Automatic annotation (TrEMBL):
GO MF: hydrolase activity
Name recorded for this polypeptide: Nickel pincer cofactor biosynthesis protein LarB
Coiled coil: none
Superkingdom field: Bacteria
Length: 256
């Protein structure tokens, strides 16, 4: 349940269109709902503007469906389920779902974003980095942002990246996704005037240590304005890019 939905309930009470008893029934499971395996945070959308995101890895298919159905009962929209395999996705049959196979993200109760905001660019070094890049891009799109994808543009053929300099320079945040030695983030950081969120991936040969080499290279970047998320954490990067892109979009009242 997000802020707009709660405001609509309160306005219905104010206008005499809804009794206090019915309003209490609508809100009776706030702020969270207990299951034997989870406590579903129904106030997340009110506090943060985004409903709770379901991390699919490690959960059973039945647990994923149970949490999704609980959120649907509270009329949440664009519910993100990350790291959900095609096999687990089958348990959502019968629910309104948009499944993105490359990103392994399911969007439950999907609603179109009428006016995507700002500009986020997601750039990946190689095609093998696409699953993590798509996780970042889909996350950012569902959160209401305009996203441009620039894929397979790593430093092994840097002219491919430089061909997109205009799109990069127009971004309010860039997500740079790379495995191997992770050099892409430093190159992008030297081109743009906005924050760069570096995502190391576990792509690479033995000495990449499943992404540790890229992680350390990105943490040691000499380019200013580069921050780093965990290995393969496309979701975290997309979420952070959204927060950066939307800074100032909604004003907050500050008491003096």
């Amino acid at each position: 349940m997000n802020r707009d939905h709660i405001l609509s309930i309160l306005k219905d009470i104010e206008n005499g269109n809804l009794s206090a008893e019915l309003a209490a029934e609508k809100l009776r499971l706030e702020p969270y709902e207990e299951f034997s395996y989870a406590n579903v945070d129904h106030h997340r959308g009110l506090r943060q503007g985004v409903p709770e995101v379901i991390y699919g890895a490690g959960k059973t298919a039945e647990q994923i469906r149970g949490i999704a159905e609980a959120m649907l009962r509270h009329e949440d929209e664009n519910i993100l389920i990350t790291r959900i395999s095609p096999e687990k996705r089958a348990v959502l049959e019968g629910l309104p779902v948009d499944y993105r196979e490359i990103a392994q993200i399911a969007i439950v109760n999907p609603k179109p974003i009428e006016k995507p905001y700002g500009s986020i660019v997601v750039v990946s070094a190689g095609t093998s980095d696409m699953p993590v890049a798509e996780e970042a891009a889909v996350t950012a799109e569902v959160l209401g942002n305009r996203v441009t994808r620039i894929y397979d543009s790593g430093v092994a053929g840097i002219h491919r990246l430089l061909a997109h300099t205009e799109e990069l320079m127009q971004a309010r945040a860039v997500v740079a996704v790379a495995g191997m030695e992770g050099a892409l983030a430093s190159v992008v950081g030297g081109l743009v005037d906005c924050p760069v969120i570096a995502v190391p991936t576990s792509v690479g040969y033995g000495a990449s240590f499943h992404g540790l080499a890229a992680l350390l290279a990105m943490l040691n970047s000499c380019a200013s304005g580069v921050s780093v998320v965990n290995i393969d954490n496309g979701f975290g990067a997309g979420y952070q890019a959204s927060m950066i892109n939307q800074v100032g979009r909604y004003s907050k009242s500050v008491s003096e």
